[in-house]
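Appendix B. Extra example for self-study. Work through it before the problem class; the solution is given directly after the inputs so you can check yourself.
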Amino acid sequence: MFGPLFNLVYDEVRRVWCFRWLLLATSAALFIAGAIVIFALPDVYQASGQIYVRKGTPLTAAADGVLLSEDNFGSPALIQKTMLNDATLKKVVARAYPGQIDDHERNAAMASLRGAQIKTEGDEGFVDFELKDADPVRVQKLTQALMRQFISENVTRSSQDIEKASSFLDAQIAEHEKQLVQSQAEMDSFRRAHPRAAVMTPLAPVADSGAGGSAADVAGARAELAAALGRNRGAAVATPQDGAIAQAEGRLAGMLTQYTEQHPDVIAARREIASLKAQRAQYLTAAAAQPAAVDPSVAVAQARLAAAQARARRGGGVAASAAAPDLSGQWGELRRRHDTLTQNYQRLIDRREGAKVSQAVYGSEDSGKYTITRDAVVPGSPSGPDRKMFLAAVAVLALGAGVAAAYLRATIASIFVSPRELEDAFQLPVIGTVSWEPAWHVAKTKRSTPALPAR
Amino acid sequence: MNVMMKSTPAVVAADMDDHDAHQPLTVEGAGGELKRVGAVRTPHFDESRTREEFRAVKRHMMSRIALGATNDGLDPRTILITSASPQEGKTTVTLGLAMSFMFERNSRVLLIDADMRSPELSRRMNLADELGLLDYLENDELAISDIVYPTSVKGVYAIPSGRPRITAPELIASERMRTLLNALSGDLGECLVIMDSGSVLACSETISLATHAGQILFVTAKGQTKRTDIDDALGILHRQAGPIDESRVALVFNKTDARQSPVRYSKQGSRTR
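Solution. Structure tokens for the complete assembly:
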């Protein structure tokens, strides 16, 4: 069953054997070349260190319930990805070599740092650092600097995030303060215009005072409208796009710590911000032309003025009992809006306090969140290259290349290694084989007896 | 020719046992002159495997001889040993085959060194400086008996190549060559003519010789002869020297290792003669 296969393999071995000197020469040449390269490789030293990133510190426990977030800042995985870029690595080099260093040393340090390995061990919070270099002193300094840069980057990033959140909260609080002042003014104005309605309950409406009351209504409504318009012109107008713009800018700032300006996400974020700003400009233009369209208080004041003027035109014949429920509803609406604003304002104040505590917890290297559990150490003996393994691999490869070269040569030469091949190729009988005998080289040897006896 | 063969002195075994193969022997010729004896230096023919391998080749050739002349009227006793390229073992096969035929009773073998580029057969027989084939073909005054030499082996005779000439191909292709071969194979009766020629791709005279050969033994060397060379050589022979088919041409695979030999040989008792 395996006879033909065995013959085929045996023939191929014979074919290679015919060019055994080529095989040996190729293998030897490649092995020698490989060995020279291997022994010319410089020794490599590996430094390693470890940092423990705590998820819960005594400080976070103390600030439990107050922090903006439990532990979303300084994710090791995120930092790992953002650490190994040229900008950060230059900072590491500067940290490792505080003085001036020449370009050669800087390039060597950068090359080593680019090959750094930063790995996390599951969810335990351990971050391992590994660095290789031909210079044991340099690799130790670089590993130490890399670990400290890791902590610094982490803390800085957390601090920046919290600052952004604080800024956002401050803007929201200022806006709410304005709205509260406005709401209070509207309520005061309503009280002045409708002293009785302001104390009425919605279920017990009272009649208006008549024509005199209508005139007062008109005057009050005009004053309210003037106040609303004045606010609109004097203060910065809040637009619906402000929040979205702030959020997009926050995202963009975050992206710029990781990506370059050419990154598609950064470009998309910039386009979104530009679009939102354009919408905001359109909104402001419309607000200037039609204040009522963008400011509900102006619209309300205009409506009230129109209603008061209508009532005044109708004169005292009009019964005030129809307007009483409307006034009560307006007052209730004003109070509900004011209460809502007050509650939101208080929540924002609480969050801003939380941001301040978070800054203390996450924004300092001394907060206890980051601990160097194993400082950078370098073994006394080089960690590589593994010359024995490389030599073995080169030997195997060289032998394989030698066999391949011999086989290729035999194939190109198209030689015959068995009578069967010869017969198949030419369809002529191979009537015999003659074995090679070294003793056949008899021309230059002296024999005492003839090779063939005479009969 | 019969006269020549009868007058050729026999070399008895006792004469050769103590003879140095490198030193030419002389014997008394028909006219009383001294004539050099070719020293046949062969492979270690006492090796049973080699002997059996040549015996297998010989048996095949003898079966063809038994069939008689070919369709073209060529005598199968006229055997041409050739190859595609040089250094493939033609002379070795020629000598081995001659030694094998020697064991046949009443058989005479005449070796002709027809390789004008490299007359290895003449050199091995220490007849390189003697009158030979080319001298005979050029000089009409020479007789066949002048160029046929006895050898140290009884029943084996040799015609050396002769002194080299630039006109060798033309002389080999001449009518006198045809006459010589006809005379040797026709008049000598049991004489078997084995021509050791040059390689087909290197010597044009080989083609001329092939037109006279009843059998062509094409030697190929293991791991050495290229397929394209054999293709070319057989193509040339086919076009210029008649049809190349298995009735006339056979291949011998030379320089193989012992494991490829069809002869299963044991060292025990191998020294038999």
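Self-check: The longest helix of chain A spans residues 136-193. If your reasoning did not lead you there, revisit section 3.
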